[in-house]
């Protein structure tokens, strides 16, 4: 289950990054995309991969 | 759901340690690249050399004085402690300055959300849920106190009532009016609010508070239980600071404090040499590394909190290591007439055995070559003269037993001693300076 969750988090992170690139001239979209990226970062922090999973 | 994050909170210890080491290495690299303080402190240290918990001892400790020194540099006001571009700082916080010049702490949106997530763990562990209407009896300020509680309550889905602009009577009436059932406050203010309610003819238990989270001061078990008796509610503790954030909280078992892992790498070190990790049941000084906060990198920060190390298991099922007891701060420990004294011993004795002591202050003076320790005590106005004198005699006797020091006890008139909203300053050592 965690692998699936991590994949979704990665997708959110990538989407937020793309949005930021696309919205350089729109402060509202840019800021909201940054906020999404912040929470994607927190989601990554709270779903770390353990040694067992790596092996 | 019992846990805020079931995945993290029940991970085997071995996995937690491995994750914390990995996060520690990442934070070390980040700090070396982004903070002037750590560019200097970590010169010659390679993060990849940190392979086990034992290797962490190779990294120097950080203390508050270094933060003060580096914050004097550019850019104003954070200087070399800043771990990010100053334009991305969204909030200013500062320490209280109790021990010297305040330390200014920068938060970015990202670092603040990380702190908020930590606090969600603390609140959820203490049983706060969306059904709670949480009253915050504080006006927020430049200090971090209760800002995190505010943001984390919202994130958790609690209904937050900011009661800062009201006075204590106003707050009591507002709690009753809106039927608040949660509260967060310093232990001192909880006791004060209960006394004020009684003065208004209101039983504090009738306020309807179900859960209370205390912050800002060390809270011995006796004080926690006194608050539970007064409000007939569950009272929880936690510990932290402005620089590292809150790093441990209490679960429903109310048996010590859980470290918030893997958000922090917490070491409990021998007070004599600040090198070796102490064993379970031993006293140590807490050294903390926040592992995901980049605006203000802190590596092995000496909190000066003195604790008893606890177990790594709990009836709640969480796998995080526990603090058995918080003893106070090394800053507050004093040698008086050759005896090591902690003001927490007095706090505990008074809250446990002397409910008639409404407020108090401890003063240490030097008269000639002799140290004198005085307890100024304000007693309940309901006490008659004879009862007050009996209490005074009993205080002298019990404090002698508890501290091995002979106290002069001075009875003070009602409402004459200062009341505190945040950090109480009930201990005054006038021998210094």
Give a structural overview:
The complex is a heterodimer of chains A (55) and B (433). Chain A is mostly helical and 55 residues long. Chain A contains 3 helices and no strands. Helix content of chain A is 80%, strand content 0%. Chain A is elongated, with a radius of gyration of 13 Å. Chain B has helices spanning 6-9, 13-34, 36-41, 64-71, 109-125, 147-156, 168-178, 187-199, 221-231, 343-353, 385-403, and strands at 89-94, 104-108, 133-136, 159-162, 182-185, 211-214, 234-236, 238-241, 245-249, 257-259, 264-269, 283-290, 301-309, 322-329, 334-336, 339-341, 357-367, 370-379, 407-412, 427-429. In chain B, strands 8-9-10-14-13-12-11 form a 7-stranded antiparallel beta sheet.
Alpha carbon gyration radius of chain B: 22 Å
The share of residues in extended strands of chain A comes to: under 5%
Q: What is the overall number of helices of chain B?
A: 11
| Rg over CA atoms of chain A | 13 Å
How many strands appear in the DSSP assignment of chain B? 20
Number of strands of chain A: 0
Main sheet of chain B: which strands, in order across?
8-9-10-14-13-12-11
The main β sheet of chain B shows up as:
7 strands, antiparallel
Q: What percent of residues of chain B adopt helix (DSSP H or I)?
A: 25-40%
Q: What coarse outline of chain B follows from CA principal-axis ratios? A: globular
Question: Which term fits the overall shape of chain A?
Answer: elongated
Terminal residue distance of chain B? 54 Å
Structural class of chain B: alpha/beta
This entry's quaternary arrangement is: heterodimer
H/E element sequence of chain A: HHH
Span of the ends, CA to CA of chain A: 16 Å
- Mean model confidence by pLDDT of chain B: 94
Give the arrangement of secondary structure elements.
The complex is a heterodimer of chains A (55) and B (433).
Chain A (H helix, E strand, L loop, with lengths): L1 H21 L4 H19 L5 H4 L1
Chain B lengths: L5 H4 L3 H22 L1 H6 L22 H8 L17 E6 L9 E5 H17 L7 E4 L10 H10 L2 E4 L5 H11 L3 E4 L1 H13 L11 E4 L6 H11 L2 E3 L1 E4 L3 E5 L7 E3 L4 E6 L13 E8 L10 E9 L12 E8 L4 E3 L2 E3 L1 H11 L3 E11 L2 E10 L5 H19 L3 E6 L14 E3 L4
Parallel strand pairs in B: 3-4, 3-5, 5-6, 6-7, 17-20, 18-19
Antiparallel strand pairs in B: 1-2, 8-9, 9-10, 10-14, 11-12, 12-13, 13-14, 15-16, 17-18
């Amino acid at each position: 289950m965690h692998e699936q969750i991590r994949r979704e988090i990665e997708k959110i992170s990538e989407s937020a990054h793309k949005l930021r690139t696309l919205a350089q001239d729109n402060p509202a979209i840019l800021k909201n995309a940054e906020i999404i990226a912040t929470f994607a970062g927190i989601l990554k922090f709270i779903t770390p991969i353990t040694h067992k999973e790596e092996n | 759901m019992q846990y805020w994050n079931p995945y993290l909170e029940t991970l085997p210890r071995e996995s937690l340690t491995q994750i914390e080491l990995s996060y520690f290495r990442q934070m070390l690299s980040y700090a070396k690249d982004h903070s002037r303080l750590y560019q200097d402190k970590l010169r010659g240290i390679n993060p990849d050399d940190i392979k086990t918990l034992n290797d962490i001892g190779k990294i120097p400790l950080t203390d508050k004085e270094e933060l003060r020194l580096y914050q004097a540099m550019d850019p104003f006001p954070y200087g070399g402690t800043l771990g990010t571009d100053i334009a991305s700082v969204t909030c200013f916080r500062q320490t209280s300055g109790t021990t010297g010049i305040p330390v200014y702490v920068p938060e970015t949106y990202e670092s603040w959300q990380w702190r908020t997530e930590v606090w969600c763990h603390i609140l959820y562990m203490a049983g706060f849920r969306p059904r709670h209407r949480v009253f915050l009896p504080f006006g927020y300020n430049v200090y971090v106190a209760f800002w995190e509680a505010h943001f984390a309550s919202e994130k958790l889905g609690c209904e937050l009532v900011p009661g800062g602009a009201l006075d204590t009577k106003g707050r009591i009436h507002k709690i009753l009016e809106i039927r608040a059932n949660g509260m967060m406050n310093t232990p001192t203010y909880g006791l004060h609010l209960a006394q004020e309610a009684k003065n208004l003819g209101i039983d504090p238990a009738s306020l309807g508070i179900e859960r209370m989270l205390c912050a800002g001061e060390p809270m011995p078990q006796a004080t926690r239980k006194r608050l539970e008796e007064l409000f007939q509610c569950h009272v929880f503790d936690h510990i932290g600071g402005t620089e590292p954030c809150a790093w441990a909280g209490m679960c429903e078992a109310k048996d010590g404090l859980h470290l918030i892992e893997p958000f922090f790498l917490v070491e409990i070190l021998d007070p004599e040499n600040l090198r070796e990790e102490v064993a379970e049941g031993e006293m140590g000084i807490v050294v903390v590394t926040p592992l995901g906060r980049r605006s203000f990198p802190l590596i092995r920060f000496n909190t000066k909190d003195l604790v008893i190390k606890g177990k790594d298991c709990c009836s709640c099922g969480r796998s995080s290591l526990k603090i058995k007891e918080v003893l106070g701060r090394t800053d507050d420990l004093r040698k008086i007439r050759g005896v090591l004294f902690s003001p927490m011993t007095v706090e505990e004795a008074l809250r446990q055995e002397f409910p008639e002591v409404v407020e108090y202050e401890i003063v240490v003076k030097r008269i000639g070559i002799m140290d004198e320790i005085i307890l100024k005590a304000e007693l309940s106005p309901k006490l008659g003269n004879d009862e007050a004198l009996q209490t005074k005699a009993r205080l002298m006797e019990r404090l002698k037993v508890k501290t091995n020091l002979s106290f002069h006890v001075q009875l003070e008139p009602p409402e004459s001693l200062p009341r505190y909203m945040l950090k109480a300053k009930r201990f005054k050592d006038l021998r210094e300076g």
